[in-house]
Amino acid sequence: MEERVRYLFRQYLENKCSRQELEELFSYVRASTHDETLRSLIKQVYAETPSTPAIQTYVNEHGTLVLNEKAKVPAKIPQPRNRTRRPLVVATLLLVIAATPVLWLGRFKHHPVAVLTATVKKKTTEASEYKYLLLPDSTQVWLNASSTLEFPEHFTKNKREVTLSGEAYFDVRHADQVPFVIHTGNIATTVLGTSFNIKAYPDRQHIIVSVSTGKVKVSYNNIPLATLVKGQQIKVNSRFNTVEEKKIAPAEVAAWQQGKMSYDDEAMEDIIADLERLYNVKIAIRNEAIKTLKVSTSFRREIGIEQALQVLCKLTDTMLRQSDGWYIIQ
Fold it and tell me: What is the pLDDT of residues 10-46, one digit of tens each?
């Protein structure tokens, strides 16, 4: 594993990671949060990495993330020699490994990032894109494709609130008496410290909350719907005001992070919308009756869009064809 981690980390530093390599690297990180051997390996590889020219944000020789106040100075002007700088991506990964709080970032008042007039930050992913985020309280978020997360630069002392459109997996930093609330339309999910997945794309029939550890409370327009613990899931249909609860294997809570697409009694149109985001393609269903048909299936992301659609066509007794850049199911 050591050589593989070295390879992935160097690819990451050089911005050469493929999507699969990036996911593999983060899977090592997530699975080894308390693995001192892995942390030591990452630090060793980091130390062997040559320094780079001055950039806006870097890590100094003490392993501290620094916001460079001289970011606007042309790169050709020499910078102080006593600083060893690394790309921002290095800082991000080291923060993941060490789980270092970043509340202090806001103290750099002269940096352009800190002098924003708006107090709310917005992070967005495009189709086929995924992002890892570390929030001001050190809560970790993995943002799925075509998703948006809005959060303040600093949380208040009484509540931590964010707004999600799309899908994300949260590993919430525990804080007694300071609930963490995720707003998704009329649905609010409240926790103190746990890990769970929320799927709330605007074009889906259901908002789905699945818990892998801890406990969460789900409300609709401030009316409590359910309190979920490990291995439980709730589906809320905002169109028809229906609620479904069921058990789910913890390993399936955010299977998309490991490249597995899993659907249990999902509407065909919702699955197709997922595939459009995942593969950044256009898909049309010509038969209206097929759109609401419920399907249960799973497949690996790497099988590709055509094979994934063929699986769905076999399950729904339909045909697949292509025309003018569209995949058409009829």
Answer: 777 666 667 667 767 766 666 555 566 666 666 666 5
* Segment (H or E) for 47: helix 36-48
Polymer length in residues for the chain: 330
pLDDT score for 107: 30
Helix (H, G, I), strand (E, B) or coil at 128: coil
Q: Which has the closest alpha carbon to 254: 6, 30, 19? A: 30
Task: Name the nearest CA neighbour of 301 among 96, 7, 33, 22.
Answer: 22
**CA separation (Å) from 320 to 196, 269, 298, 323?**
35, 15, 19, 10
287 alpha carbon, distance to own chain's centre: 33
SS3 category, 203: coil
Question: What residues contact 269, with CB distance under 8 A and at least 6 apart?
Answer: 205, 285, 291, 292
Nearest to 133 by CA among 100, 87, 92: 92
Domains identified in the chain and CATH numbers: 116-255 (2.60.120.1440), 259-329 (3.55.50.30)
| d(C-alpha 311, C-alpha 307), whole Å | 6
| 277, two tokens | 């985001």
pLDDT tens digits along 53-98: 333 333 333 433 333 333 333 333 333 334 333 444 444 444 444 4
- In this prediction, residue 193 carries a pLDDT of 83
Amino acid sitting at position 119: T
How many CB atoms lie under 10 A from the CB of residue 32? 17
Q: How far apart are CA 207 and CA 324, in angstroms?
A: 33
Question: H or E element: which one contains 132?
Answer: strand 131-134
CA distance 231 to 249: 5
Q: pTM here? A: 0.60
**Which helix (H) or strand (E) element contains residue 182?**
strand 180-184
